[in-house]
Design a protein that fits this description.
By secondary structure, the protein is α+β, with helices and mostly antiparallel strands. It folds into three domains: 228 residues, Glutamine Phosphoribosylpyrophosphate, subunit 1, domain 1, CATH 3.60.20; 223 residues, HUPs (Rossmann fold); 69 residues, no CATH class. It has a six-stranded antiparallel β-sheet with strand order 2-3-1-9-8-10. Strand 2 and strand 3 form a beta hairpin. Helix 8 crosses helix 22. The two termini are 34 Å apart.
Length: 652
Amino acid sequence: MCGITGIFTTTPGTADELVGTAEHMSAALAHRGPDDHGVWSDLDAGVALGFRRLSIIDLSPEGHQPMASASGRYTLIFNGEVFNHAEMRRELAACGHRFRGHSDTEVMLAGFETWGVEGAVRRFVGMFALAVWDRDTRELHLVRDRLGIKPLYVFHAPGIVAFASELKALATHPAFDRRIDRNALATYLRLLYVPAPATIFHGTVKLQPGHIWTIRRPDLPLPPSSPYWSLTEVARRGLAQPLNGSDDEVLAEADRLLGEAVGLRMYADVPLGAFLSGGIDSSLVVALMQERSDRPVRTFTVGFGSRHYDESAHAAQVARHLGTEHVGVTLGDDDLRAAIPRLPDLFDEPLADPSQLPTLLVSGVARRDVTVALSGDGGDELFAGYNRYLVGRSAVRAAAVLPAPARRAISSLIGRGSQESWNRLGRGIQAVLPGRIADPRLGEKFYKLRALGTAGSQPALYRALVSFWSDPTALVPGAVENGYVAQRAWAELPAAATLERMMLADQLEYLPDDLLAKVDRASMAVSLEARVPLLDHRVVEFSWRLPDRFKVRGGQGKWLLRRLLSRRVPDALVERPKMGFSVPVDDWLRGPLRAWAEELLEDSRLEADGLLTAMPVRNTWREHLAGRRSAGLALWAVLVFQAWRDRWRPTV
């Protein structure tokens, strides 16, 4: 895993100036690559490419980047890993290519020489964001992997295109536009993240997953990027060609695919381990790793004091059963207070998923012993693991058949109790019936269902189910929210596929722009490479061919993953309520973080530069402190933005 950055400009200045700018941008990414660095430039073309290396495969100088192809036509910088490089190496060697080292970078360049850039990228199995300069055509190609596992930001101004793995590198460029995009800010407050292609800044975009951007003239408006792989098309094709095998046949194929995906991601020239939360996904990944290892796999987890959120004891049970070398760390308030000031630096675009804290802390624990860690991310989105899929499917269907007065009556009934009173009911049920129906956050989910009374469409209802501020434009003066991806998912898939529409919406937006961004920044902050085998694109394609019964059965999601895991661990370690990799943010804001939050939520600080309106935030804060409302996540979004604003000093 590494950090990449570069410039393509019509006004490069002198050679020293061009290289100096690239080096300065690259230095901002030193945490992503502490082992090596390099800059390549072509003054006549106005191109400079900068690289920071975290050495994972081929630790020798033969893996140094920027790297040129054998003919000198292509020069590449590359963040990530291409896991099928050994297979491609054999194929390319048969075509006459000779290799100096054993890095995947060298194989990729030979692939460009043989198949062209897009032809080679279509063959890659992996996670990657790359930039390749074509000397012959004088084109810069920017490419991002199919699922958006690795990031790539692009800034454009007249006569210049600059790109980087993180915004902080772009922010060092003297031409960078630091103006806030108010529309993106409003969408962030709704969702806790900024969806691609937008970013929090004007003039900067994210390259979308599965796309190639070919740039010939930095002095002209950027052309549209083009997809080389389309998740929407994969979904449509999978639903049109479902698997018809028996349970045993489908499970056997899933076992083979997942085992291969895990096995490919265990190749490294440095120590390797895994995150183990104790949930279905990470436990299955670790089990598959242990089957393919001749020594105990190193596993890592962190826990907190709250029994509603702490899975560390369960993770330890799974580790004991599988025979891993397990490290579990329990964190307290002091660890929390120490981590929070780091967030604005690490997440240089606001991201308010509070599981960023345990992800950052478990990455730090793992980095003491390993340089690569496998993660279970993606299982919920691919195999219907979220409770909101089951509740949302019923709610969306009800919205389609219930008359408006009935919907309004249900909404009114929910509103008669406060969020906290419903939460208390959920905790009471949990104490008596600690099964799947128990839910200590019942009130928050009920209050989202109040949208049933006012939602004008099915995608609008799903949007409400995943929203944290229902009307963020009331907080951001002058903002107009960007269009939302649920509309696209509803339009692209058949009307009968309500569950699949919700899953597609999450895979297109929530997965890359929240979960994967969180894992990338938190792991790379400590120079740790995180790999996500469940998001092998062939597993994704397989998941879209699965009929509903392989995802949801017996009122539970992830049926297929549960069955695969139950072959490897006792049922008692599989059949348990979903907890999720989260934190008790509601309690923290009323307790150890209250003083920090109160300072950031002062009226004068909220309304600085006219970016936010204080009144709705202050009202929500008071209700939260009084226990009338559990609004921790909504408030966390504002707090993260406020801390980010203090650090990055954007303009209005």
